[in-house]
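User: Teach me something about this protein's shape.
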Amino acid sequence: MTYVRPHFRRDGTYVKGHNRRTRPRTAQPRTAPRRATPRPSPVPAGPTTYVRPYYRADGTRVRGHRRSISPRTVAVAAGTGGGFLLLLLILLALAGGPGTSSKTPADTRPSPSASAPAAHHR
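Assistant: First, the predicted structure itself:
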């Protein structure tokens, strides 16, 4: 038997000190946890996405599963394609993409005002 010291629970109740009975040992040690029988899961209606298995903050393992997507999420995801195109066009304009470039002029001949002054003939 194990002695448990007096303490307060999280909800504020007081627990007196007591002896706790230990679990009796089984004849065969359990090496693997027992698995629950799989239940057939209902097929979600509409668009779905796969959620990979993960561990919660408290250590609980969540198995991989399919989750339905709300219509609003689908609309937002579909709307990002136009935003991507707009972003691409802005980046091309800033980088001097296809079309005229602001760095090199189209006409490379010197202008008359920039050339040497012409000699006057008499």
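Now, about its shape. The radius of gyration is 38 Å. The helical segments are 71-95. If you'd like, I can walk through any region in more detail.
User: That's plenty for now, thanks!
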